[in-house]
UniProtKB/TrEMBL annotation:
GO molecular function, one term: phosphoribosylanthranilate isomerase activity
Gene giving rise to this polypeptide: trpF
Highest taxon of the lineage: Bacteria
Known catalytic reactions: N-(5-phospho-beta-D-ribosyl)anthranilate = 1-(2-carboxyphenylamino)-1-deoxy-D-ribulose 5-phosphate
Domain N-(5'phosphoribosyl) anthranilate isomerase (PRAI): 7-202
Pathway this chain belongs to: Amino-acid biosynthesis; L-tryptophan biosynthesis; L-tryptophan from chorismate: step 3/5
CDD domains cross-referenced by the UniProt entry: PRAI
Protein name in UniProt: N-(5'-phosphoribosyl)anthranilate isomerase
Gene3D superfamilies assigned: Aldolase class I (3.20.20.70)
Amino acid sequence: MSVVRCKICGITRVEDALAAAAAGADAIGLVFYAKSPRAVSVRQAQAIIAALPPFVSTVGLFVDMPRRELEGLLDVLPLDLLQFHGDESPADCVGYPRPYIKALRVRPGDDIAARVKLYGGAAGVLLDTYVSGIPGGTGEAFDWSLVPADLSKPIILAGGLTPGNVQAAIGQVRPFAVDVSGGVEASKGIKDADKIRAFMQAVRAA
């Protein structure tokens, strides 16, 4: 089985970014959505990115942000990847000087394969839990059996993952990567270094 990559999302502090990197995370996620308790300012993001060691990717998470505003952020932040986590259409996601992934919130009855195919320009698709009115970060898992095999894009599995369940999730879904936020926190926006290490150990053991 190939190595499963891991992103620690919702990073708000330099020390948490460094803890994620030290534990072996492949990427960290920075949330640019004002309604999120994990939202960061440009200044916070700049400090976090500047502190990271080489080979740790930085992902910016956006929820229906106007194009001009997002382009302005990219002028001052050296993000590696864009994560669109709202109701963005395929056309909304292209045209930026960065690759992107599209988050899709999963609920019973969804034709996940058809939804994934809509985003042909995506580097990958993130599958998260559907909760009405909340674009992400719910801390709730969805039914992993809903994920079809052999989807047309690399899959990043998110939604309610913890050190205690991520190994089973990987075994069932066989994703390219996993994404965790609340499952490794002491409180919203504040990570727990011990939980991050435990999560990464479980990912490696899967």
